[in-house]
Amino acid sequence: MKLKENTGYKVFLVVNTIIMILISVATLFPFVYLVAQSLSSEKEIIAGNVTLIPKGINLKTYIYVITEGEFIKYYKNTILYTVVGTTLSLAFSSMLAYPLSKKELKATKILTPFVIFTMYFGGGMIPNYILVVKLGLNNTMAAFILPMMISTYYVLLMKSFFASTPKDLEEAGELDGLNKFGVFMRIVLPLSKPIIATMTLFYAVMYWNNWFQAFLYLRKDKWPVAYYLQNIIRGAGANDADAQQVATNIRSCSMVLTALPIICVYPFIQKYYVQGMMLGGVKE
Amino acid sequence: MKSKIVSLSLVASMLLATAGCTTKETTVGSTTTAPDKIDTSATETEQPSLGYEFGLGKTFHADQPTTYSMFFSDANWYSMQPTWKTEGIFKKIEDITNVHLDLISFDSNDYMKNVTLNISAGESAYIIPKIYDESAFVDGGAIVPISDWVEYMPNYCEFYNTYDMAPDIRTITRSNGKYYRLPGMLEQCLLNYTFVIRQDIFKAAGVDVESMEATWTWEDLLEALKKVKAYMVSQGMCKETDYIWSDLWCGSESGQSSGGNLLKVMGITYDVNAGWAIADGIRYDQAKDEWYFSPTSDNYKEFLAMAARFVNEGILDPGTFNQDDDTATNQFYNGKTVIMSVNQSQYANYVKKCEEVLGAGNFELYATIPPRSKLYNYSTAGDVRLENGVMISQKALDELGKDGFIEMLRFVDWLFYSPEAYTLYKWGVEGETFKYAEDGSKVLLDGYCCSGLGINGKDGDIDIRKQWGYAGGNFWYGHTLAEMTDNYIPEVKHFVDSNFNNREKPAIAPGIAPNDDQNEQMTLIATPLIDEVNAWTLWFVTGQKDVEKDWDEYVKVCQEKRCQELVDLYNSIYKGAAKSS
Q1: Where is pLDDT greater, at A87 or B253?
Q2: Given pLDDT bands bounded at 50, 70 and 90, which one contains residue B29?
Q3: Is residue A2 part of a domain?
Q4: A164 and A46 in a common domain
Q5: Cβ–Cβ contact A284 with B under 8 A
Q6: What is the reported pLDDT for B237?
Q7: Which of A196, B270, B484, B507 is the most buried (most CB within 10 A)?
Q8: For residue A39, what is the enclosing H or E element?
Q9: In CATH, what number does B52-188+385-423 get?
Q10: Chain B 262-301, residues with CB within 8 Å of chain A CB atoms
């Protein structure tokens, strides 16, 4: 039945639309501004002529950033960390979440509190740092990935999802000769594509944006692009006599290039973001 | 029984703790401090079996290849390149001394955080340069009290004794009479931060800054800027509502919510702590021989009233205090503003940028010296002749043993305090990157430039800082007047000399040496207090509060935030030390 659109409802729609448009403009403005700056000449930026429309349009900054600057080196590091990290995170998180989802296993009752405990209590920054250093992982890719490889919150989301997998299917697989690992790999995981897709996105975004592990453990040649970007945005430290700022167009260009992959992926998988939060949260 | 044992243990612990506190308090003020001269006679006798050469006027050289670990602050605007190690600064140091520096580098933005983390985790390098404040490391025992060892450092002692550095060094001496940082030492404080103006527009408006600057006050500057603005409005260069001064190093990026450089410079001329120099607000009154809280003083009120006039009378953009630095510089480069803060290394950069935007020949810049106040003719170059410096980790002493540690100290002495090393890390190698001109001055060879030295070159010239790491910020602070000024371009030399000739150096405040507990107490009081002071200061300056009407309320807020308690603490520490000496 179609709701009767009375005057009040029409007014609400108009106001709502206007507000949404304003929010969209406010959200888009910084990014469009960045794109305009990255495509403009430095002279026009300094002269204050660039707002939303690029002036002195050129691709020199992009060519410089991609071919001559250090940006591309850090970009490659980020891609590597994201691919390796996301793969490992998915593998280990799902392998932890699956047994935890089995209520009939006695160990689950003991292990689950241990897993949840790590959500609320950590070792602290310095003990973690000492651990990583003593393990000989300092300044390696492992130092970037291992400390955050398993997110307890994501494991719990996966656990809830796995718990909703029909037991009959798993039993049918076992009757056909599959062992537990076979059931997990050939029945449970193929049925869990929504949660896997969501977790892939969550983990990938986490690795893509992460800079803190790099700050702690990585030297310059191994930085991810997020940390490099953070440093050029912060620019030279205050009070430093010989400080110089990185040119505005180079900063803008680096920001655009860093945000671009995630921005391109979002429209296609953004529905998983919403679903993902709900998927594991529904109880039978 | 068990509970009795626990109770007894607790009581015993408390008694021990109390005894510890008592000991601490009784030792305050009964300690020695940095000597007027360091006696090196006992340590300077050369021993042939040392396994290395060292000494005043000599190059340090180890007989066997040696490696020392060192933290390195890697500036992102000239980040370390592989060539620095293969053919640049670190290769040259190794060639000369036979010492390999095992560098652990951190980005300059996070340098102190990483240094702190590594020291806390027991992973410190032996040599820790670029340290402005060593307070956080003193109590943990991870840093060597270097004052116990400086007698082994001939170059350091020579400078200390020649230029009477004792009063300056006493400002970093702790309650136990020791200091923990080898500071960069300056023969004289030189003006670094000042103002650059659009001389062409000032002249056209009939304002001759060059003839005024020797004695000009902030009131004179305000009148001059009003005249310039009137001229600009009449010429259609700006509107009546526009501001012609929008300063940098004061806003969201580098101003640290305190008013940054501008209020620091202005505050010094009124003998108050403000802006970057606010610290805990405490200042020393030479006449009364006691400490006081400067942000509630009459001088501070006068300083605020003067600063507010620049905003109220339409000259200084109130956005100065919350904008990013690019916004400020861009307005100056494109001619919308006519005055802006500058420092020694940035002057040449401003000229270059203005040429890009305005075109060469279309503008004229002039770096003037900061005005004085009506009260004082103080130089804003600073009073204490110390710069950032080097800490040495306890780990070095533990791992190298006493003899090995002394050898390392003598290498550090050569690296940071010898004229030979200073020339190397500032200019490179004679004949490779620079040469001596006929008048004895140093000049870069053709084909080289150095942004760090403020020497612009032609397109295609190699920047010796970016390529090989010379003139980098980890090394070349301090030294003699001649060494510090040997790279100055005429414009910079002019304002440094002008300041030196026309302003007076403020007297150095005596050092006070709080113990750990007092230090903690001071921090606890000062942190919220200074946050409040900074907020009110910016409200007054930008016109959100009225200096005359709201001053009493502001003072009351400071009192509620325990400013008097802080003053009392300072004076009790100071008087205690004074009594015992």
Answers
A1: A87
A2: very low
A3: no
A4: no
A5: no
A6: 95
A7: B270
A8: helix A7-39
A9: 3.40.190.10
A10: 276
Residue B135 main-chain phi, psi, to 5 deg? -50, -40
Specify the CATH architecture of the domain B194-380+508-580: 3-Layer(aba) Sandwich (3.40)
**Residue A242 touches partner B, C-beta closer than 8 Å:** yes
Q: What single letter denotes the amino acid at residue B371?
A: P
Provide the strand spans (E) within B19-172. Answer: 52-53, 61-62, 66-74, 99-107, 127-131
Domain ranges within chain B, ordered by starting residue:
52-188+385-423, 194-380+508-580
Write out chain B residues lying below 8 Å of A218, CB-based: none
Which of chain B's residues have a Cβ under 8 Å away from the Cβ of A46?
329-330, 333-334, 353, 356-357
Task: Tell me, yes or no, whether A284 lies in a domain.
Answer: no
Looking at residue A185, the DSSP 8-state letter turns out to be I
**What is the count of structural domains for chain A?**
2
Are residues A44 and A120 part of one domain? no
Using an 8 Å CB-CB cutoff, list chain A residues near B113: 215
Q: What is the predicted pLDDT for the residue at B16?
A: 37
Chain A touched by B249 (CB under 8 Å)? yes
Assess if residue A145 is contained within a domain.
Answer: yes
Residue A224 has pLDDT above 90, yes or no: yes
Q: What residues of B are in contact with residue A48 (Cβ under 8 Å)? A: 330-331, 334, 336
Helix (H, G, I), strand (E, B) or coil at A69: coil
- Interchain contact B192–A (C-beta under 8 A): yes
Pair (A73, A53) in one structural domain: no
Share of chain A above pLDDT 90, in %: 46
* A22/A105 same-domain check: no
Residue of A nearest to B114 (CA): A216
Cα B74 from chain centroid? 18
| Residue where the block lists tokens 């659109």 | A5
Residue A230 lies in a domain: yes
Tell me the average pLDDT across A48-69: 82
Structure confidence at residue A245 (pLDDT):
52
Q: Which percentage of chain A shows pLDDT scores above 70?
A: 89
Contact B191, B499 (CB under 8 A): yes
Hey, do B52-188+385-423 and B194-380+508-580 end up sharing a CATH topology, with the first three levels equal?
yes
At A235 the pLDDT is 59
A21 plus A136 within the same structural domain: no
CATH at A86: 1.10.3720.10
Q: Is the dihedral of CA B498, B501, B507, B508 positive or negative?
A: positive
Distance, in angstroms, between B105 CA and closest chain A CA?
7
The answer to whether the Cα torsion of B115, B117, B119, B121 is positive or negative is: negative
Kindly report, residue by residue over B367-417, the tens digit of the pLDDT. 999 999 999 999 999 888 999 999 999 999 999 999 999 999 999 999 999
Question: Domain check: are A54 and A159 in the same one?
Answer: no
- The answer to whether residues A109 and A238 belong to one domain is yes
Q: Which of A240, A246, A254 to mutate to test the interface with B (most CBs of B within 10 A)?
A: A240
User: What percent of chain B stands above pLDDT 90?
Assistant: 72
> Higher model confidence: residue B402 or residue A275?
B402
Helices vs strands, H then E, count in chain B: 22, 16
Question: Is pLDDT of A239 > 80?
Answer: no
| Residue contact A235–B253, C-beta within 8 A | yes
* Predicted local confidence at residue B45, as pLDDT: 57
Q: How high is the pLDDT of residue B517? A: 85
Regarding whether A42 and A97 lie in a shared domain, the answer is no
Whether the CB of A177 is below 8 Å from some CB of chain B: the reply is: no
**In this predicted model, what pLDDT tens digit does every residue of B228-268 receive, in sequence order?**
999 999 999 999 999 999 999 898 777 778 888 999 999 99
* Chain B residue with minimum CA distance to A47: B334
B contacts of A43 (beta carbons < 8 Å):
356-357
> For B451, which residue in chain A has the nearest alpha carbon?
A242
Name every residue whose Cβ is closer than 8 Å to that of residue B218 and which is 6 or more positions away in sequence.
B266, B269, B306, B371, B372, B373
The domain in which residue A228 lies consists of 69-279
